[in-house]
Amino acid sequence: MQKQDTYAKVLVGNSFPFSLVRCARMTVESRSLEDVKATLSGAEVVSFWGHENTRAAAEDVLGVSLAPCTERPAVTLAPDKRPMLNGDVFDVCWLLSPDYPSGFRPSIGQEVGPEQIVGWHVLKLTWQ
After folding, report:
1. 61 touches 97 (CB < 8 A)
2. Rounded CA gap, 23 and 82, in Å?
3. Residue 42's CB: how many other CB atoms inside 10 A?
């Protein structure tokens, strides 16, 4: 496990729209489930989880609620080009993405159930 990150509020989602990356530098790191769990421990989770069909499974894995404040919240950009949600601006965003069986690709419009999840992948996005 890497050094624990400590934040009062932590932005968490299942994917991030890369069309919103407008800053000079953003890094993406693959991290462990333990890293994100440690970061979320004691922090206020600000979620933009977009898929209700996988949210309960993700909450079970992380041990925290990922219920967003509004249905299908949209991340926007602050004037300095960092991500913003519900008026809060963030330097870091954690993504928890489900892993599916090799070669699996859902049909257009198909909802993927939690029983199809074989694991999880964590990414940490940092704006500099």
Report:
1. no
2. 7
3. 10
Q: Cα(75)–Cα(40) distance, rounded to whole angstroms?
A: 19
Tell me the pairing of strands 26-31 and 9-13. Answer: unpaired
Report DSSP letters for 7-51, one per residue: -SEEEEES---GGG--SS-EEEEEE-HHHHHHHHTTSEEEE----
Q: In whole angstroms, what is the distance from residue 95 CA to residue 101 CA?
A: 19
pLDDT, one tens digit per residue, over 55-112 is 999 999 999 999 999 888 999 999 999 999 999 999 999 999 999 998 888 888 888 8
Give the global pTM: 0.88
Structure tokens at 38: 């440690």
pLDDT at 3 over 60: no
Residue at token pair 């999880």: 120
The whole-angstrom separation of Cα 76 and Cα 71 is 15
Q: What is the pLDDT of residue 59?
A: 96
Residue 49 and residue 15 in contact, taking contact as beta carbons nearer than 8 Å? no
